[in-house]
Task: structure prediction
Amino acid sequence: MTCAHSSCASALLRIHGLTVRYAASQEQSSPALVGVEFDIRRGETVGILGESGSGKSTLALSILGLLPVSTNITGSMLFENKDLLQFDESAWGTVRGTRIAMIFQDPGLSLSPVMRVGDQIAEVLRAHRPGPRKVRKQQVEAILRDVGLSQGDRIYGAYPHQLSGGELHRVAIAQALSCRPDVVIADEPTQSLDATRQAEILDVLREVNRKFGCAIIFITHNPALLAGFADRVIVMYAGRIVEEGPVPQVFRQPLHPYTKGLLQLVPASLQDPDRTRGQHLPALPGSLSHSDRSTRGCIFESRCFARTELCQSESPREVVPEEGRRVSCFNYEN
Ligand SMILES: Nc1ncnc2c1ncn2[C@@H]1O[C@H](COP(=O)(O)OP(=O)(O)OP(=O)(O)O)[C@@H](O)[C@H]1O
Ligand code: SF4
Ligand SMILES: [Mg+2]
Result:
């Protein structure tokens, strides 16, 4: 296994050779994830960056054991040295939502429209931490304050449709945090918000990470959201990790042509705040085609400005150019 970190022995979560193939696509196309390897240490903030279809959500759903049962999954996912892939539903019940929690892109997905939001968070607490009802209400109000919702009473008694988009996102974070998980996975959690609200939600997540020490895996296709937020970035293309490293180094000197392309999209989006909303971020020219997936060469070759003849016939191996970084490209030094 390639490890870009000096202290990988202390990994909280260790993904090794993770390959995922959806049942619907078994015959005709390649897996949604191919040999994915990385580790997460306690308390760190890691960004997963990649275009639409690169496998980010598949990765998140794998870590939460939420892929359809028909999905073919190989590899291992060690959480505190126990392989999550070997877990049955009852074992997952002790981990999902409690030790590893998820904030979905659309808070509506995790909130019932017909129940007061305070009761919904209290319900999660009751399931995992039984105790007197009155104490539970106080605990919920404290969690709401932790995510910046100071009007605890109003929020507690509100139905989801009575809250603004920003408040709903905070409630979703509060719900995910209620059991003090060790890992929080946030899948494009700010995509539907405007630039100001996006920044506020990132501030809440940063504060949560600082205060409770939970590791955060932040999934996005917008590199601008990771600057100043994540410690480390993992760049994904076509279900593979193509580059990984500390955010300051990767953003200052990206090595993979795909990472370079993604980062070149950012200055334009920063000049026009409206475009920092995920859906308006300009796209990298070209797209992954069917023949790219079956090539013997580099899977990014058809879109790559740095390609050479070798890239058509061979797939690049992963190299570690310096401690803490890795990249899969023949020409990363150019
Ligand atoms: N339930 C499914 N059944 C079959 N194929 C799927 C399923 N979910 C995702 N895929 C395919 O797996 C690949 C990875 O999809 P995934 O949703 O993980 O990408 P993503 O990086 O999260 O994209 P986005 O940025 O659009 O959310 C894509 O080719 C997608 O079409
Ligand atoms: S190996 Fe070749 S085609 Fe692939 S990213 Fe590097 S330069 Fe581009
Ligand atoms: Mg997704």
Observations:
- The chain has a mean pLDDT of 89.
- The radius of gyration is 20 Å.
